[in-house]
Amino acid sequence: MHSLIAESGQLHLGLTLDTGATFASFYVESNELAVQLLQSMATPQGEPQLLLHGASGSGKTHLMHAYCQILANAGRRVAYLPLRELCDRDPDAVLPGLETLHSVCIDELDVVLSEAHWETALFDLLNRLRESGARLLLAAQCNPVHEHTVMPDLASRFGWGPVVQLRLLRDEPLERALRHRADALGLTLADASVAYIRTRGPRLTSELFRFLAQLDEASLAEQRALTVPFIRRLLARGALDGREADN
Hints:
Strand order of the largest sheet: 2-1-4-5-6-3-7
CATH class of the largest domain: Alpha Beta
Shape: elongated
Number of helices: 10
Structural class: alpha/beta
């Protein structure tokens, strides 16, 4: 199974959380409410259910991984299910028993909506989670509360908790996010390097942060400062190949 279950701080079932995806490394500007709700959700006083939606690159997966790591480090049992990897499987083999965990995180919800078998299984799971008291974190690009579903009652259940839209960062906020992540990685970026990355580098935060991590690795390997020529060479050799769609 491609899902992840964390128990007593140990990760199982062959999927690794992005250890760099923490609440501290997430640049919160314009998305403060989502972070506040998620941090609260990791406590006994938090909401039992939360739905995040937003465009690719807005930070949904980053925040899900941050939430999972908080719980795993506290010894809580949590499941993370990226549905893009699981949608070809039988949901009856993926979803049973999750109500026994502390939290269930379902990412990329969009890919299974309109699939009757998956919708039925999700409907049953949401009912079981509500009955057991387990926490549920959902993420999708479009707001599934307003999407057409085969089961109309499923859409209403997606709205059982707060529904929060994540905002993409543009221009000056994106530059501030770039500097924030560089500081978190311990990278020294001159103003000229920041300006070059802003004009020539990726425009989505997920791709931008992945590129910064690659810069960090390359500068350590070659013992080079992050000058504009060095950054230009890394971009020219296709450092962004294989990037994922979200963060």
